[in-house]
Amino acid sequence: MFYPSLTTTSGAPTLLDAAVAVVLMLIMIPSNYYGVRAFGMSTTPFGVIKLLFYIAVGFTLAFVFFDPKNFSNYKGFLPFGFSGVFAAIPFAMFALGGISVLPDYAEETRNFRRLPSAIILVIIGQLLLYLFLDSVFVGGIDWAKLGINPGDWVGISGIPGNPFITISHAYNSHVLLALTLIVGIIGPFVVGYMYLGAGTRIVFAQGRSQIMPKLVKDIHERYSIPYWALLITALVGAILAFISAPVPSIWPHRGRCSGWVYRV
To answer: Is the pLDDT at 256 greater than 50, yes or no?
Structure first.
């Protein structure tokens, strides 16, 4: 929408987009390299800001447009039956991956006994946030402005990119557009460097289990970080990000595949 040179007409990334993704992956390395304390100091403020912006997006969308009839008209609740629920399971499992980050860092916590309560609080918090955003999204659908036939829920899935950004642009709401753009930038970046750190710990654990070479078990003397595991994880991530351009067929399956990987 804003940078057409980064995507093709089908929505797949271009080589330029893939190169940008590789650069972003490399930028995420320092936030993980300097130890879990520095990681926590950067993650906490970014996480709080991200949460506040998510809540602001929800309330702003509800203020701009909200039609309660979207919940009762057009075949009502579960318009596709349980087939729609099963179709959403892989994406729900991808969201559940955010919870797995907590045990990934378990060895570096000061009080591991607080992990169970932290996991429960995160599950409840995620559930409430997702229900809130899902509700304002469904209620915030203005079929006419989106150019979709009323009740055509399948047509909603055809909204390109971030649907909140598309909606705010279609509604000509500058405030909502600014909020969604900020969320669209901060959200994936925070998730990216958190998952890079979590993946590093998994590779490190695989070294202990002798699945990976002993090299990945090397710990930095000053920052207490498995630096080879970090570099290998970042390299694999960069390669996967880059090949999404020359092999665009893998792009539409990224969310579904990630979800099933977490489920396994």
So the answer is: no
Number of domains in the chain: 1
Q: Which pair of structure tokens corresponds to residue 110? A: 């000061």
Residue with the larger pLDDT of the pair 74 and 6: 74
Domain region containing 243: 4-263
- Over residues 39-46, the mean pLDDT reads 78
Query: Which residue is it, tokens 């750190």?
Result: 197
Instruction: Convert the chain into a string of H (helix), E (strand) and C (coil).
Output: CCCHHHECCCCCECHHHHHHHHHHHHHHHHHHHCHHHHHHHHHHHHHHHHHHHHHHHHHHHHHHCCCCHHHHCCCCCCCCCHHHHHHHHHHHHHHHHHHHHHHHCHHHCCCHHHHHHHHHHHHHHHHHHHHHHHHHHHHCCCHHHHCCCCCCHHHHCCCCCCHHHHHHHHCCCHHHHHHHHHHHHHHHHHHHHHHHHHHHHHHHHHHHCCCCCHHHHCCCCCCCCCHHHHHHHHHHHHHHHHHCCCCHHHHHHHHHHHHHHHHC
* pTM (whole model) above 0.90: no
pLDDT tens for 170-215 read 888 889 889 988 888 888 888 888 888 888 988 999 898 888 888 9
